[in-house]
């Protein structure tokens, strides 16, 4: 079926364009990744939280989300350029110029000629997008170290220098920073925090990582147990970090999970077991105190109004008013320190300045302790969003890459079909190039205007739903349809070329 | 069964274009010419031989194989020079020739080198950078070096200068002596006459005449042209009753058509006349074809 000489010939006359497009696409993707500004994206996302934009911006909060334009537009147009020209070169150009006569005047079957040529196009597209994806992975790994391990943030870099460790070594052992006062100081400064807030942040990160890693191990173990159990769906078997946080008892039952958690904390398994036991106990007491509080409240209400005075003076910090209070605190601090509130937002440690604290307590009615903890909380959460923005979700990346590949394969099948259908280069270019390009234009208009209703039905790029992939929605059917388009059109091209009249 | 057999071949492109009910039989070792003006259907017929297009009706068999269905297998015995030449890939002439020998599984590189030298062809040039003449030579070298039993050529002498054309004709004669079967189209009647055994004439998609060149070449009826010194002799000769095909009164010239057996008698007769000159007018295929076309119109 495959003719080696024809494959070689196809390679000889088409490798240059392949190389150029592959290099350009890889460079652009790497450039996007290297220049990714995690802090910037995190702050945009934070600012938009709770507003009407939060949905649109939600995809921007991650590294992969910031690559949407690459996957929707840049990679697509580069792919179109490659497949249109290559498909033309492979078939219609040889028919139109007459050079196909030489190929077909040898004892190679027509079916074998066209099969080899379609195989060349498919394989070259697959290889191109594998190379591009690997380039993206490599760029992300080299810039952020977030593919094989945890992203190296500024604090880790700074602490690594102080502690004289390799960055990636330290990023796996954050407890080493905790153990060294000096390292804590430089790391905190690197993340625009004071040591107090940074300590909370670091504990938070270590705790979450331990849950993530243990959840993964427990999920793996459950897979082995329940794999053949028909009553258990994938969702039932999988244990997420969140589920584990609510019910940490599961960790105590798995030695591997305990070992993994202990490694994150840098403690012995026994010590880690104690940490988990403590957490379980804390959860229990929290629940009972909550119940007690509720009981107290009802009592208080029935009692005299004398207590009310103190509660109004001592403002409560609740989730509802936290955002508003934080803004007030920032404005008061800015007034107290005589600088702009933007400067305060950039460096929240200023909230703890004595003068700022004095004015803030006055305006908000909160006590110093509450404002301090509010500042800490704000710093930690903004640092955590930067961490989130830097996470590299390998699974999402795989789907994005696969979807892009399927889309380009579908485009290539259109070009290839046109290339076998027509005998004149001009006609084949008009249809086989025009159609994919029209699809691209529609996508571009869609991206530019948010309310382009109905346009999604005009282009096959809709089947590659980057939004759904990034937000964990349903996108599998699109992939199936794209794959089917490619299979049908490539098969049709093969049959058509074997039967058609050739003007040679 | 004929070596190449075309039976009732019809391909209708509408508007009177195409080929209609063409039947030809080409024997092994025969050099068969296929002539007609541009657009008469020569290339369409040849494409059927190569299996590039499917007939609406009729069939082509080469060595007993269906040229349409077993196209790839037929190529084991066939070498081809297309009417419009472009080479695949982006390589030098040398690489193309080697590749073609490799792909067809026959022929020899030494022969290709020999032929290239004969045609003064620079095979180091890139196939896309070649002039029309160079491409034509490369195509000829490729076809002749392939050592196929059957050579199918679509106007193979286009783009060749007269010197190269003569070399090519000589090479074809060599191939013919080796027993190769050659089918070539042309619109140059002279070259067809020079090498072909038989010639089919196609016009508007139909075969209007199949000519045995030997019959023209070795025709025993010959035409002689003579000019007389005096009008009296001129008139006297006309009165003798020879078969006179043409008379040029003002020049006192006469064209006499006689069979070879009568030549002695004519010469004896002419002893009594005062002649300016006497020469044989050779019959040409070209004249013959011109005659045929005139009759058709």
Descriptive overview:
- The complex is a heterodimer of chains A (504) and B (297).
- Chain A is mainly α and 504 residues long.
- Among the domains of chain A are: 4-145 and 394-499, no CATH class; 322-390, no CATH class.
- The two termini of chain A are 23 Å apart.
- Chain A has 25 helices and no strands.
- The model of chain A is unreliable at 303-314 (pLDDT under 50).
- Chain B has helices at 42-49, 71-74, 93-104, 109-118, 132-145, 162-177, 189-195, 213-217, 231-238, 263-270, 285-296, and strands spanning 4-12, 18-26, 31-35, 57-62, 65-66, 78-81, 150-154, 181-186, 198-203, 206-212, 221-228, 244-248, 253-259, 275-281.
- Chain B has a six-stranded mixed sheet, sandwiched between helices. In chain B, strands 2-1-4-5 form a four-stranded antiparallel sheet. In chain B, strands 12-13-11-14 form a four-stranded antiparallel sheet.
- Chain B contains eleven helices and 14 strands.
- In chain B, β9 (198-203) and β10 (206-212) form a beta hairpin.
- Chain B has 297 residues and is an alpha/beta fold.
- Chain B folds into two domains: 4-216, P-loop containing nucleotide triphosphate hydrolases (Rossmann fold), CATH 3.40.50.300; 219-282, 2-Layer Sandwich (Alpha-Beta Plaits).
- Chains A and B meet through α1 and α5 of A and α2, β6 and α3 of B.
Distance between the termini of chain A: 23 Å
Q: Give the helix level of chain A as a range of percent.
A: over 70%
Helix content of chain B: 25-40%
Tell me, rounded to a whole number, the average pLDDT of chain B: 87
- Identify the biggest protein-protein contact and residues per side: A-B, 24 and 29 residues
Q: What is the C-alpha radius of gyration of chain A, as a whole number of Å?
A: 30 Å
Mean pLDDT of chain A: 84
User: What topology, given as strand order, has the largest sheet of chain B?
Assistant: 6-7-8-3-9-10
**Broad shape of chain A:** elongated
Distinct helical segment count of chain B? 11
Name the shape of chain B in a single word. elongated
Oligomer: heterodimer
Structural class of chain B: alpha/beta
Biggest sheet layout of chain A: none
The sequence of SSEs of chain A as H and E is: HHHHHHHHHHHHHHHHHHHHHHHHH
CATH homologous superfamily classification of the largest domain in chain B: P-loop containing nucleotide triphosphate hydrolases
